[in-house]
């Protein structure tokens, strides 16, 4: 088993990162910005990094991977939003962004600064980065992990079932996550790490096929 990372966004462009290393418990990190996530990955020689953020942005319309995710996720489909087109990254205010892309949800706009940061960092790193840095949707990972439609993650039952699902894969150290991370952030980071591990083992599934955006960035969700 190689070192892998799973990262979920928390407040102020911070990321909670779950590190899986052979023969050791989960190690937790809290870093600021996408560049810091990649620096951490390089320092650990991580074989794969799964980020809970859209990677690869459409010029217009909807990404195939988002539509496939929405269709396959079942009861948790409300957790899937359509990734905004690339030109929306130019806007810092919701009204202007909504005018540029009618139908843009507040949920999608709330991630614009994080999407912009990840996009810039990955494009600066070059095309080869996409062999090991992937987009992950934790709810899809939990669906793949359990084969079931789980209750919403904010509910007590939903949280316990996700913890139990992670425990069956050997991931049980959520209590040591950084204080800044909510319990749901930590669970999502662990689910991302699980997906990153599946990528290194050749078990991962990819939604969106070989689609790329206008800049050649892959538009895929990995589970």
Can you summarize the main beta sheet? Answer: 5 strands, mixed
**Percent range for β-strand residues:** 5-15%
Radius of gyration: 16 Å
* SSE string: EEEHEHHHHEHHHEE
Mean pLDDT, all residues:
95
Low-confidence stretches: none
Q: Numbering strands along the chain, what is their spatial order in the largest sheet?
A: 3-2-1-4-5
Question: How many beta-strand runs?
Answer: 7
Percentage of residues assigned to helices: 25-40%
Question: So what's the overall shape?
Answer: globular
Quickly count the helices: 8
How would you characterize the overall build of this protein?
By secondary structure, this protein is an alpha/beta fold. The chain is 38% helix and 13% strand. It has eight helices and seven strands. It has a five-stranded mixed β-sheet with strand order 3-2-1-4-5. A hairpin with a 6-residue loop joins strand 2 (14-20) and strand 3 (27-32). It is globular. The protein starts with a strand and ends with a strand. The model has no long low-confidence stretch (mean pLDDT 95).
Sum up the structure in keywords:
223 residues, two-stranded antiparallel sheet, 38% helix
Topology:
Elements: E1 4-9, E2 14-20, E3 27-32, H1 34-44, E4 48-51, H2 64-72, H3 94-100, H4 106-109, H5 112-125, E5 133-135, H6 138-146, H7 156-168, H8 183-200, E6 206-207, E7 221-222
Parallel strand pairs: 1-4, 4-5
Antiparallel strand pairs: 1-2, 2-3, 6-7
Helix pairs in contact: 6-8, 7-8
Question: How would you sum up this structure in a few lines?
Answer:
The protein is an alpha/beta fold and 223 residues long.
């Amino acid at each position: 088993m190689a070192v892998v990372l799973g990262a979920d966004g928390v407040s102020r462009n911070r990321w909670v990162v779950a590190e899986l290393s052979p023969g050791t418990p989960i190690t937790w990190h809290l870093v600021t910005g996408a560049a810091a996530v990649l620096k951490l990955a390089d320092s650990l020689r991580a074989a794969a990094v799964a980020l809970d953020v859209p990677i690869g942005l459409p010029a217009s319309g909807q990404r195939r991977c988002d539509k496939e995710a929405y269709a396959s996720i079942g009861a948790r489909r409300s957790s899937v939003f359509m990734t905004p087109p690339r030109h929306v990254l130019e806007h810092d205010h919701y009204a202007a962004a909504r005018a540029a892309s009618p139908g843009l949800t507040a949920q999608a706009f709330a991630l614009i600064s994080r999407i912009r940061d990840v996009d810039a960092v990955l494009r600066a790193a070059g095309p080869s980065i996409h062999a090991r840095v992937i987009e992950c949707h934790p709810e899809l990972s939990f669906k793949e992990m359990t084969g079931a439609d789980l209750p919403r993650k904010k509910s007590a039952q939903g949280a316990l079932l996700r913890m139990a699902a992670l425990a069956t894969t050997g991931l049980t150290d959520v209590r040591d996550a950084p204080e800044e991370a909510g319990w749901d952030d930590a669970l999502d980071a662990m689910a991302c790490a699980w997906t990153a591990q599946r990528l290194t083992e050749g078990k991962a599934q990819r939604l969106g096929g070989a689609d790329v955006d206008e800049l050649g960035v892959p538009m895929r969700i990995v589970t």
